[in-house]
RNA sequence: GCAGCCGUAGCUCAGUUGGUUAGAGCACCAGAUUGUGGAUCUGGGGGUCCCCCGUUCGAGCCGGGGCGGCUGUACCA
């Protein structure tokens, strides 16, 4: 009576299985993105999932928190390895390792899985896909402007209409200038600077008031949890908020506002000038309506050194429960001039953009973009097994179909005819091939058009009638099998 | 990590003040129909009531702890 404990079949939390429909749709989406990237002259490169931990970031796992944020393990030589958590750090390693052989500026793209050991949630996974493009070795902001325009083209290519998205651009140097002006310039203030950065990053969610609290003493959220703030003085807070609110009616006026906010800071002014140049470049190619300067964009990562960008969807969609879904950013990036330089003696400028494939994918589903909602592929033709001693003959039919380029399979289960029909139905099979002794004696096969049949079924109420009618079923000489099946398939294509 | 809510069949959920053998719909399987996917009817399989400990004559229900899920918040190099 005591049953042995069965293993519970379940995927680890934060990890998801993907079915055939999603695989095909993702494949189409990736192909569209790749097409745009190649059009811009970027070339593919692939790096492994695993890197030495110190190549990924600054911290080695320690005893207390060996896997904080990143999945890590030790090799047999005791070196720490980690699953990559983005595609940028591995690219920096790749470029540094192959520096002399690569053309510079080096432009490359790559898509792949990345892993983060964090709390998962809806739309937040511990394994997800990114699609990156980077230009390494170009210090000019023309490289940044190009990335922004490419991001805009990419979103349109995958089916997001112009006007439904924005590429927002800012510059870390401007923010640095502001922080310098309020006395947060030194290395010893790095922690506080990061707190300020993250507070600004929450502007879209918490609004100016919430950010004001986070910049000052702190903020209590609706669950009663308290978040300690950056402890800035009131006038410093106003200065930071003025910076985030510096967006004007157009890019030119935004730049003008920023010049005011940074005051005398040389670094801040440099940043504002870079933004002005990006605005000019973008406008020259006609992208000024979808590439806008927005000082509220800061990005959470601290390795950015110059322009930063974020691709945001601007339309609203309601979920099944009628609540508005906020997509947030579907991609982002920026200039990271220090990242490759960690491996080399000379500094190497670089800038890049990363698309959150999984997030973009669910957004495309919401707007029914044809690229992900295209009709799913029909299943294979199923050859039924009517007489078990005739399997060889059935298999021959399958082979004939296959060698004529028609997806086909032999029913490999052990159930009766009714179950085989159900199987074909569930496989989305366009038609079933039937040959019992009656047909065999006449040298014929029965072909049942399952799609036509399903339509016909709607008009039939009684089972007796259903059986007698045998809707959408016809018999052909065995030699005509391929032609007849082709005929059925051609009726259902498109 | 912190806080709030939640956990009963594959799914969505009922389940009375603690009371016999825990239910429904959908899904699945089979039969009605010895060779025909739909519909209809009939029947069937499927449960560690998240886990452990406790209270009780008796726990799906009460208490404690744990695990898991959702929401918010934090973290995300």
Automatic annotation (TrEMBL):
InterPro entries: aa-tRNA-synth_II, aa-tRNA-synth_II/BPL/LPL, Anticodon-bd, Anticodon-bd_dom_sf, His-tRNA-ligase, HisRS-like_core, HisRS/HisZ, HisRS_anticodon. It comes from the Bacteria. Its EC number is 6.1.1.21. GO terms for molecular function: histidine-tRNA ligase activity. Keywords: Aminoacyl-tRNA synthetase, ATP-binding, Cytoplasm, Ligase, Nucleotide-binding, Protein biosynthesis. It holds the Pfam family tRNA-synt_His. It is found in: Cytoplasm. It catalyses: tRNA(His) + L-histidine + ATP = L-histidyl-tRNA(His) + AMP + diphosphate + H(+). Residues 27-378 form the Aminoacyl-transfer RNA synthetases class-II family profile domain. Belongs to the class-II aminoacyl-tRNA synthetase family. Homodimer. This is Histidine--tRNA ligase. It comes from Microvirga puerhi. The gene is hisS.
């Amino acid at each position: 009576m005591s049953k042995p404990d069965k293993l519970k079949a379940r995927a680890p939390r934060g990890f998801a299985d993907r079915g055939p429909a999603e695989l095909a749709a993702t494949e189409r989406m990736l192909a569209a993105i790749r097409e745009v990237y190649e059009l811009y002259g970027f070339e593919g490169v692939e790096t492994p999932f695993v890197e030495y931990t110190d190549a990924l970031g600054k911290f080695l796992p320690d005893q207390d928190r060996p896997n904080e944020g990143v999945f890590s393990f030790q090799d047999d030589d005791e070196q720490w390895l980690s699953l990559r958590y983005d595609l940028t750090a591995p690219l920096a390693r790749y470029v540094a390792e192959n520096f002399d052989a690569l053309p510079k500026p080096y432009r490359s793209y790559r898509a792949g899985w990345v892993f983060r050991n964090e709390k998962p949630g809806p739309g937040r996974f511990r394994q997800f896909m990114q699609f990156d493009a980077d230009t390494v070795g170009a210090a000019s902001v023309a490289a940044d402007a190009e990335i922004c325009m490419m991001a805009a083209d990419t979103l349109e290519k995958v089916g997001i209409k112009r006007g439904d998205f924005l590429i927002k651009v800012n510059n870390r140097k401007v923010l640095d200038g502001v922080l310098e002006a309020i006395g947060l310039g030194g290395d010893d203030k790095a922690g506080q600077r990061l707190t300020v950065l993250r507070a600004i990053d929450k502007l879209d969610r918490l609004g100016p008031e919430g950010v004001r609290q986070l910049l000052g003493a702190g903020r209590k959220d609706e669950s009663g949890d308290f978040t300690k703030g950056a402890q800035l003085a009131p006038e410093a807070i106003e200065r930071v908020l003025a910076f985030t609110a510096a967006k004007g009616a157009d890019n030119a006026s935004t730049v003008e506002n920023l010049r005011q906010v940074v005051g005398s800071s040389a670094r801040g002014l440099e940043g504002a000038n870079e933004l002005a140049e990006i605005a000019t470049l973008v406008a020259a190619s006609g992208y000024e309506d979808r590439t806008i300067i927005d000082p509220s964009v800061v990005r959470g990562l601290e390795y950015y050194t110059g322009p930063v960008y974020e691709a945001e969807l601007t339309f609203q969609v309601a979920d099944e429960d009628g609540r508005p879904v906020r997509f947030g950013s579907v991609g982002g990036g920026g200039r990271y001039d220090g990242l490759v330089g960690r491996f080399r003696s000379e500094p190497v400028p670089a800038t890049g953009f990363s698309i959150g494939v999984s997030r973009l994918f669910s957004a495309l589903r919401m707007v029914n973009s044809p690229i992900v909602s295209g009709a799913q592929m029909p299943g294979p033709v199923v050859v039924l097994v009517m007489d078990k001693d005739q399997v060889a003959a059935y298999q021959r039919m399958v082979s004939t179909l296959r060698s004529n380029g028609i997806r086909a399979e032999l029913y490999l289960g052990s159930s009766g005819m009714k179950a085989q029909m159900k199987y074909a139905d569930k496989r989305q099979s366009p038609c079933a091939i039937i040959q019992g002794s009656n047909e065999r004696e006449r040298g014929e096969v029965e072909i049942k058009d399952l799609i036509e049949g399903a339509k016909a079924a709607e008009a039939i109420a009684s089972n007796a009638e259903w059986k007698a009618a045998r809707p959408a079923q016809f018999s052909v000489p065995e030699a005509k099998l391929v032609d007849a099946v082709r005929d059925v398939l051609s009726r259902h294509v498109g």
